[in-house]
Amino acid sequence: MSEPITEADQGKQIVGTDGESIGTVMKVDAGVVHVNLDSDLPESVKRRFDWGDEEDYTLQETEVESVTDDEVVVRSRASEE
After folding, report:
1. Does 79 have pLDDT greater than 70?
2. pTM for the whole thing?
3. Which of 4, 27, 60, 66 could join 34 in a cystine, given CB atoms 3.0 to 4.6 angstroms apart?
4. In the chain, what's the furthest Cα-to-Cα distance?
5. Is 68 buried (19+), middle (13-18) or exposed (0-12) by CB count in 10 A?
6. 36/32 Cα distance (integer angstroms)
7. pLDDT at residue number 81
8. What is the DSSP letter of 44?
9. What CA–CA distance (Å, rounded) separates 20 from 16?
10. How far is the C-alpha of 1 from the C-alpha of 63, rounded, in Å?
């Protein structure tokens, strides 16, 4: 990723590299993206990001593949293995 994710990206849709909607950027804090998950997000997607049943879902800035005017595209943690 060329540009770091910033507070200006709050509110953008988060999608996987396959285009699947994951949620929305709630907050960006020191390279950590706080995610509001889509209510109908399948458990299989949560597993790809190694998310259990915690209340605060986060992504590291290093997991962000790209940022467009409308979306934040992320790689799943499982795809890095």
Report:
1. no
2. 0.84
3. 27
4. 32
5. exposed
6. 13
7. 42
8. H
9. 5
10. 9
